[in-house]
Hints:
Strand content of chain A: 35-45%
Number of strands of chain A: 3
Oligomer: homodimer
CATH class of chain A: Alpha Beta
Amino acid sequence: xATIVVEVMLKPEILDPQGQAVASALPRLGFNFAKAVRQGxxxxxxxxxxxxxxxxxxxxxxxxxxLSNPVIETYVIKVEK
Amino acid sequence: xATIVVEVMLKPEILDPQGQAVASALPRLGFNFAKAVRQGxxxxxxxxxxxxxxxxxxxxxxxxxxLSNPVIETYVIKVEK
Lengths: 81, 81
């Protein structure tokens, strides 16, 4: 059993109010390490056995059609374990 | 400049309706690779220079206090680049 991870982030040129909210909350809590914060989504997809290239291509297709909005978001696909 | 990534996922025993919605939408679109899907959050925190152990400890603290709800979520901290 393997886990395929799809990480979806807003494109850099797209405003990210959630990330900005976190970035402005951090100093109020006494944390001054952050220059900028971006918030995105992470999907962990469990599959049977080792992922085949065909499955990865399917995940890529699903990431494009369902998990992300390609107009404003980018995604990265990773295989874990 | 480095990026510290905080990945926040619901604990395995916590119901994840967002992940379930994705898992049931995939077959409707013709994708049959997924056994289960979990959805979580991903924070990309930009910092100046290389992260120090003290900064990582601060991020850990912020992840616990602000970025996650430790009752129902777990987090993983990674340094990228």
